[in-house]
Amino acid sequence: MKQQGAAAGALGGLRVLVTRSDDQVDSYKEQLEKAGALVADLPVIGIKPASDYSSLDAALNHISNYDWIIFASQNAVNYTMARVKHKGLDQSCFAQTKIASIGPATSQLLATFGLPVAFQPSVFVAENFVSEFPGYPSLEQTRILWPKADIGRKIIAEKLEAAGAQVDTAVTYQTTMPDNAEQAAGNLVYLLEAKSIDVITLASAQTAKNLALLLDMGLQQKFASSGGVTDKDQAKKRLLSSVKIAAIGPITATAAEQSLGRVDIVATQHTLDGLTEALLASLKFPQNQQ
User: Fold this and answer.
1) Are 183 and 224 part of one and the same domain?
2) pLDDT tier at 166, thresholds 50, 70, 90
3) Are 40 and 191 in contact (CB under 8 A)?
4) Is the peptide bond prior to 121 cis by the omega test (within 30 degrees of 0)?
5) How many Cβ atoms from other residues are within 10 Å of residue 127's Cβ?
């Protein structure tokens, strides 16, 4: 857990907690610091390779049979392309398959692999992706590959299949608790008790869920060491009362409401840039944060 930054800038020294995974935290931390935030990073989620690549390997062996491949995250791109390399292939294997991407960051990453994006929705949520997908709702004889995490919503596959498409999903990576979960849990409780952060940023629904689990774990540690018996839900509510909870979009906001009891700031543009803009707006117009 590190905290640093400069008070100069539009965010004016706002103390922000970034909860992204270890391999993703730095880019967003730098963005916030450039905007003037004081940033603490506490990864609450781990990203690891899938435990079984048989489904993805089988799909890659016949990738030209697919009309589309969907990438819903940068992680999906990175782990899929790592598997492509492992199999001795390169980006040319996708020459006959159109690529769909959810979000500009994912599209930009695809470009670094030399993969042009044929479709990106106007709003980066599953419902818009499906309703704007080329050919929807008449997708008979359309074959789609969706490399994805081991968890997450199934609405994209379900709605595309309902429109007649054949959708093959392949687990490409898995999300876990951070490796140092017990330490992270203790650090989280410490930060909240010290009231040393103003805003917790959440960039995915699973991050919101993991944050709640770590908070429970940290409180359990505290109660065990003190020998006291305390209402954990009340203690959690008290600790969170001094911070704002900021979500990257509506799905993450729903997860925060369910896991943490509330959300205070929701980005209207569902990207990290949009999340930063939402933080700026919350300072300018505190009465209109959601």
Assistant:
1) yes
2) very high
3) yes
4) no
5) 15
Q: What is the extent of the structural domain holding 62? A: 48-176
pLDDT in tens, 193-235: 999 999 999 999 999 999 999 999 999 988 887 666 568 888 9
The answer for residues whose C-beta is within 8 angstroms of residue 161's C-beta and 6 or more apart is: 167
Domain count within the chain = 2
> Residue 161: inside a domain, yes or no?
yes
Q: Of 176, 201, 231, which marks where a domain is finished?
A: 176
Q: 109 and 41 in one domain?
A: no
Does 112 share its domain with 161? yes
Q: For residues 284 and 278, what is the distance between their CA atoms, to the nearest angstrom?
A: 10
Which CATH number do you get for residue 124? Answer: 3.40.50.10090
CA distance 12 to 52: 46
> Lowest-pLDDT range, 20-34, 45-59, 200-214, 221-235?
221-235
CA–CA dist 235, 192 (Å, integer): 11
Residues 140 and 172 in one domain: yes
Domain boundary (176, 207, 241) is at: 176
Radius of gyration from C-alpha coordinates of the chain: 20
Write 234-242 long-range contacts (CB < 8 A, 24+). Answer: 236/212, 236/260, 236/261, 237/261, 239/189, 239/192, 239/193, 239/215, 240/192, 240/215, 242/192, 242/195
* Assigned domain for 264 exists: yes
Q: Are residues 40 and 182 in the same domain?
A: yes
Whether residue 163 is found in the same domain as residue 255? no
Position 276 pLDDT exceeds 50: yes
